[in-house]
Amino acid sequence: PGLSPVVSLLILRVQRHAVDIKLDPETANPHLLLSADLKQVTYTSHVTVIPINKSKRFSYMYVIADRGFSSGRFYFEVSVGQKEEWVLGLIEESVPRNKRPVYGIWALYFRIDKFCTYNNRNVPVGKVERVGVFVDYDKGLISFYDRKTATRIYSYTRCVFTEKICPFLCPCNLEFPTNWLPMTIVPVGHE
Fold it and tell me: Where does the B30.2/SPRY domain lie (predicted)?
């Protein structure tokens, strides 16, 4: 069954701001394994050794996109499949890499059967397999959508951005059986 006309219009409106992003291997935590095309991340219990600038790497299980944004609107989609735990969102480019960020991060956290954000512990939407993220930098807006139903999961409003913000992914560790599954940046508009 197709989406309703209203839902289809909403998706089309945000999709026109689609950007092509890849993951930046220099920022990936050593326990994160990236695909050759830099679109997919999985957790690994083995430490990956890449001779790079260690100051750019996160000590937490994060990897950020290869580009940041400091104006305008943009949209991207991430497949989370059947994962039982993951984090996805935006992070300021200059956030400290040696500890879990507290400021300069706008994220959606999923664990088993519920969503949380850093300022709202109970976001009332069930499990999703694909998340759309829309950002209007100039209006201080970040919205997360269930891509399949076009249901808004959560929106951060009145955000004050003072620098470039970058998409980031966190596949979490192997606490749950399905967490070996990847998170994948997917082409917008393709099912």
Answer: 1-185
